[in-house]
Amino acid sequence: MNRIAAAGNIIPPIYHLILEKGYDIKLKDEYIIATKDNFEFIANDFTELAGLIFLIENKGKNWKVSDELIQDCLMFLKQN
Fold first, then answer.
1. C-alpha angle with apex 52: 3 to 70, nearest 5 degrees?
2. Helix, strand, or coil here: 24?
3. Of 10, 13, 33, 80, which is least surrounded by CB within 10 A?
4. How far is C-alpha 75 from the chain's CA centre?
């Protein structure tokens, strides 16, 4: 099994991957902002930023899920 964990050494690869995908990145106040086409992504760190980009690239403007899927996620999180 290959394993990767959220740690400081994942930041540079994520940063460069976002740039390679054609996003412009800037810092504003305490936020990292990436823009491309008509989208602006605002996050606290590069891991969050990558997650937002992943969400939009895969789901598009219709990224929201139904109440049923929200409840499913909440139930999963309550398991512990």
1. 90
2. strand
3. 80
4. 22
